[in-house]
Specification:
The chain is an alpha/beta fold. The protein has helices spanning 3-15, 18-25, 29-43, 59-84, 97-102, 108-113, 126-135, 145-148, 201-212, 226-234, 244-247, 276-286, and strands at 48-51, 54-57, 89-95, 116-122, 140-143, 158-172, 192-195, 218-222, 240-243, 255-259, 266-273. The relative contact order is 0.14. GO terms for molecular function: DNA binding; DNA-binding transcription factor activity.
């Protein structure tokens, strides 16, 4: 039985959907389905219940997951140890798009100097990064603290706080709020906003801040990727929120970043790893300069 099939089984169980799992695994839907059917034939039992809404583990599937997950992790550890003996230690590091674009690149040379070959794996939300870590698809993640806490069945055994950063409002340079030194959340009532989908941590945080001020955010456009958000704002379609890392890297002449004047308008970023030694190896390279 191919070890890759076990990995595919674990990722599909975490995703609850063959379509979503195939995206994470960079496999076609038919190829992943064939792998899962091969596993079921090998074990002589159904491992998933399939429905239009997705898949869920059968009792046999749950038992298999409990037994093979630690075996898969041990196999990954053995493979890594052998690879380390012949060169740099390869570490699959999950990260949010903003961190992968603006935080990781200047730290990659330092990681190489420590004998680490970081392979970035980008996911749009901290929840998805949590899923990748839980499934063993990555060795460590840069995420928000809530996503670093895995369920008791597979806890993240090591984590460390890296930094905290505020959010900024991004507006077209001709927008009235672009002239402010800072803005409060109350000033955004009835303003058209361009934000990530509801599953994004930034969206959830901002919606909570708006409700604390007695209103619901006015969402005009939803987009999955930060570059799309900024493009809509540059076109005059509304306002958006970005972490300071992104705000400091704005290069578009029509965009202006304005600090948000609100205690809760910030995020924390932690490094979490499924294995203590992995986290400790990464930490010196990933700490803020």
């Amino acid at each position: 039985m191919h070890i890759e099939f076990i990995h595919s089984f674990l990722v599909t169980a975490e995703c609850g959907s063959i379509a979503r799992a195939s995206e994470k695994l960079s496999l076609t839907h038919p190829a992943l389905s064939k792998q899962l059917r091969s596993l079921e034939a090998y074990y002589g039992t159904l491992l998933f219940r399939r429905s239009p809404g997705g898949v869920e583990l059968t009792e046999a599937g749950r038992r298999l997951r409990e037994r093979v997950r630690p075996l898969y992790e041990e196999w990954q550890s053995i493979r890594q140890e052998l690879a380390d003996a012949n060169g740099p230690r390869r570490i699959r590091l999950g990260a949010l798009p903003s961190l992968a674009a603006h935080y990781l690149p200047p730290r990659m040379p330092g990681a190489e100097g420590l004998g680490l070959a970081i392979e970035p794996v980008v996911a749009p939300t901290s929840d998805e990064l949590r899923g990748l870590l839980q499934a063993g698809a990555v060795d460590a993640v840069l995420c928000e603290p809530s996503a670093a806490a895995l369920p008791p069945s597979r806890p993240a055994v090591w984590s460390a706080s890296l930094f905290e950063e505020p959010f900024c409002l991004v507006a077209h340079r001709e927008h009235l709020l672009a002239r402010e030194a800072s803005v409060g959340v109350a000033q955004l009532r009835d303003q058209p906003l361009v934000l990530h989908p509801p599953g994004c941590g930034i969206r959830r945080l901002f919606a909570g801040l708006c409700r604390a001020h007695g209103f619901e955010p006015t969402i005009k456009v939803e987009a999955n990727f930060g570059d799309f958000l900024l493009g809509y704002v540059a076109a005059g379609s509304g306002l958006t929120l970005v972490p300071r890392l992104v705000a400091e890297s704005l290069r578009h002449p029509d965009l202006v970043a304005v600090p948000i004047r609100e205690e809760g308008a910030k995020r924390q970023i932690v490094l979490a790893a499924a294995r203590r030694e992995t986290g400790r190896a990464l930490l010196p390279a990933l700490q803020p300069s």
